């Protein structure tokens, strides 16, 4: 489906308005050289030779905040809308609509404020929780076309700002669940969707999606029927009177086998509903659980998924999911995260803003997502107060207001407040824009991108320390650096929000600026373009060695001339690999081919075993490799035919140990140092 674009005036260093922040006047230039000499320093080198696919943007789920605030007084709703989607606010362009499940009419609401999202079904009069066989997806009388008015108010309000819509489900309706409640099963580890309701659930998700499109004049791009399904988060507890007292939100456990059944049912259901939406999956809570689910899917089920969605509430194995997406040649989103950094609710403490900023940097660098999506930037202010979520309170959300406001409230009686996460998030959303391409950076505290038109760049740097830091941007990776090239810092710290400093002139292909302690700085780089000739490590005709990070030994052609083993680096011809071909693709998904410079045998995979095989002269995906790096100087090699990674089997370290392939797992034995040894 063609992607829509949003015509917007995002704020840049050249045109920051007073609405951005307090004290938006031009701030003096960098610290003097004498002062800077006494400070810690770091040199950051953005490398445009390693470009990710075009970034689709920044987004949010609507979920609870939209359900809670969709009927608030106009001035409060508009204030929120501007903070979330306005050019001076977070400038979000992606929205995820939650298809509510909904408990039975006779169940008193026990979910958290905003959590009881109305379902799209219409139960006959007198229906109770015991009545579970009445719904027919083909009967218009069983659909509530006017359901969920509050969340849908938001759909109408923001649809001109949104370039990608996604629908998703936290739980099936109560009558499709094993427990009879949308907050999960009585056994949190048991599948909650009834086996006989799989097709009905698919029809429900597809039908609600189509009705949303028709009612609001939007096109839904992707549909995800799950939310953190293979976890034990979702359970229902009953009180002594048999009434539910918890959990507090919709959720449903579904293991990989059941997920696969839902995917097989959803694909034809979407076609029958005549929506052009693709399937996304599976919105798992962390990359390692996502990988476990994905590896449990059959090839047929994986083929049904057009977009891979993962959350980063856990941060291990990001690179595993990155490589799985490249192996499958599918879009990858970081589709949900929030966090609670610092010590409880605070609107001035920089630690929450710094924690969020570092999480974004890590996600962009290790996961390489096409989009980055908040869970919900708006949280219940009262629930985040001490005694709400915890004894000390919490700082979830970038914006907080009470979820208990009434039609009589005003901005004075229902205050809308922002914390430092709102401020630091804008350092990303205003300067890394849809259409830009994220690029490699050799610093774990920085993320960078080249602009959509290729004639500029941006870099966001996080300084979480208690000391100011001198940051030098080494721009030698760009081919063209104009005489008037400049770097303009835009700083968020305890002293100001998005404060524009004076432009620093690029000198000797570099620019230096001193960032404050506990700050996030966006550097707007003007007058640079292209890729320097010597910037790419991987260049056709050059010769390389591949040395295992875990073993410290190089890939070597065995004595039989075919097998591959590891051996101590001796620079022999058996350890040398010439880059003989590059198969261009979109950014970091391009493919490389390696051959031995002596006998011309190429690095190939047969029956999951890597071999040095005579070159046939024909293109062969089994001899093509997709290369990935986080900028730390090490790489993974994904075989284009099998999706498996080159590795040292069993994490061996002895000479002669076999070089093998295995599914991605972020192990050190799957990472390689690639060294140019061209004579």
TrEMBL record:
Keyword Heme: no
Residue span(s) of domain Endo-beta-1,6-galactanase-like: 42-280
PROSITE patterns: RICIN_B_LECTIN, TAT
Span of domain Ricin B lectin: 623-678
Keywords of the record: Hydrolase, Lectin, Signal
Span of the signal peptide: 1-33
CDD domains: beta-trefoil_Ricin-like
Gene Ontology molecular function: any one: hydrolase activity, hydrolyzing O-glycosyl compounds
Name recorded for this polypeptide: O-glycosyl hydrolase
Species classification: Bacteria, Bacillati, Actinomycetota, Actinomycetes, Kitasatosporales
